[in-house]
Amino acid sequence: MNHSLIYQYFPELSDLQQNQVEQLALLYSDWNEKINVVSRKDVEELYERHVLHSMSIGLYTDFLPGSSVVDVGTGGGFPGIPLAILFPEVQFTLVDSIGKKLKVVNEVVEALSLKNIRTINDRIEQVPETFDFVVSRAVAAMPTFVRWVSQRVKTESKHAYANGIWYLKGGDLAEELAPYKKKVKVYSLHERIPLPFFETKKLVYLPIQPKKG
């Protein structure tokens, strides 16, 4: 597992951040033997398929210090944990309805001493708070996902991009994004990361304006 791949795309990481990145392989290899949160073959490609894929959001946008991001359906902690390493001054909330997955997340967070992550074992619809941005990796078709999270987005924006969703997904997205074609942006990750794994991978940005009342 080649962690140096991360530094090709994020050369400004501090020594602390690099140390945290380098610990990920051992932590996930160890925990995956007990609780399967990453497919067996993907553990060998952890840095490319999970860490770099998660951090790729940071190639397109910066989250400002003091802002809040919720990772919905975080599973084993992706994209939330790599993004929390990348943006140490941003508060991340990692939400998943499956408790055993969050057990792994909590153990990894503690081992890395990540102070900017908290976890919630619940469905996002039951979380009463609002956030600047929602991130996720392909947990549902976009119309379903928007229905889940639209009331979790803060109304006041302070970033270059309006508050909303950053969604990692692959394949043909035309049909599910059709309802949002006037405002959605779709970025091909392969343009920034020219590796075979990223050929079909996309990053979708969708601004959200919560309904009043």
Task: Provide the descriptors you would attach to this structure in a database record.
18% strand, 7-stranded mixed beta sheet, Rossmann fold, globular
Protein model, in words:
It contains nine helices and seven strands, in the order ααααβαβαββαβαβαβ. The protein has 213 residues and is of the alpha/beta class. It has a single domain, classed as Rossmann fold, CATH 3.40.50.150. A seven-stranded mixed beta sheet has the order 3-2-1-4-5-7-6. The chain starts with a helix and ends in a 6-residue tail after the last strand.
- The CATH class assignment is Alpha Beta
Number of helical elements: 9
How much β-strand is present in the residues?
A: 15-25%
Q: How does CATH name the architecture? A: 3-Layer(aba) Sandwich
Instruction: Write down the oligomeric state.
Output: single chain
Total count of domains? 1
What is the first-to-last residue Cα distance? 49 Å
As a percent range, the share of helical residues equals: 25-40%
CATH superfamily label: Vaccinia Virus protein VP39
